[in-house]
TrEMBL record:
The keyword RNA-binding does not apply. One of its GO terms (molecular function) is DNA binding. It holds the Pfam family Trans_reg_C. Residues 1-97 form the OmpR/PhoB-type domain. Keywords: DNA-binding, Membrane, Transmembrane, Transmembrane helix. One of its GO terms (biological process) is phosphorelay signal transduction system. Residues 1-97 bind DNA. InterPro entries: OmpR/PhoB-type_DNA-bd (IPR001867), Sig_transdc_resp-reg_C-effctor (IPR016032), WH-like_DNA-bd_sf (IPR036388). The chain crosses the membrane at residues 136-158. The keyword DNA-binding applies. The lineage of its organism: Bacteria, Pseudomonadati, Pseudomonadota, Gammaproteobacteria, Enterobacterales. This is Reguatory protein. It comes from Yersinia ruckeri.
Length: 222
């Protein structure tokens, strides 16, 4: 059985049935035939003569008969603004929406709500896919930024605390790192002299004292 979708309306010509917003409406025979003809001829307009010759083949029809049939169709379609069935002056009538044709089994009709449900599921799957891709790209971007920041900080602090041993003047010994001349005065008075080569204050408040003993460089913690 053939089912035709026109915008939000489903139409089954064989049983002259319309479905709109879950409500089924039965059409008269001529109304159903006119609507089926407009669907077949879309997007071309159908003249009044063609409609009359195709639908009322063996009977006489007046202009008022066709006009009333179109009016009844619009009422059944709830087409108050004449958006589904458009009147084209001097040319006839035409559908305002492209009809979608679907073949279905007599015992298992696909309703318009089922078609919309499938469409919604596809849209949701597409949104989930896009969301997943966005999250993955966001994580990758954060990792790249973290790696760049790490390299920058490493380079900065490495250069900041690097000691140029080659160009170091013996009179500059011992080298002092993280020590304050006032706060660490007691420690400096005790170790700021030979054989100390390097004095460093750690973050936990302890000190490293490095000395040259014979041919070795030894460090102790205090």
């Amino acid at each position: 059985m053939e089912k035709i979708y026109i915008g939000d309306v489903s139409f089954i010509p064989k049983i002259r049935s319309l479905e709109l917003n879950g409500i089924e409406v039965k059409l008269r025979n001529k109304e159903s035939e006119v609507l089926a003809l407009l669907c077949e001829c879309y997007p071309d307009p159908v003249s009044r003569d063609k409609i009359e010759n195709s639908i009322w083949t063996d009977s006489y029809v007046t202009d008022n008969t066709l006009t009333q049939t179109i009016s009844n169709l619009r009422n059944a379609l709830n087409d108050k603004k004449h958006e589904l069935i458009i009147t084209i002056p001097k040319k006839g009538y035409c559908l305002g929406f492209e009809p979608k044709f679907l073949l279905c089994n007599d015992d298992n009709h696909s309703s318009l709500s089922e078609i919309k449900s499938v469409t919604n599921i596809e849209n949701e799957n597409a949104q989930v896919y896009l969301s997943g891709r966005f999250s993955f790209n966001y994580i990758v971007m954060l990792l790249v930024l973290f790696f760049i920041s790490f390299l920058f900080l490493f380079e900065y602090f490495f250069n900041k605390y690097q000691i140029d041993i080659v160009n170091l003047n013996p009179h500059d010994l011992p080298v002092i790192i993280n020590l304050d001349l006032k706060k660490d005065k007691v420690f400096l008075d005790k170790y700021r002299k030979k054989p100390s080569i390097l004095l460093k204050k750690n973050s936990d408040g302890s000190y490293n004292i490095c000395k040259r003993v014979k041919d070795e460089f030894l460090c102790t913690r205090e």
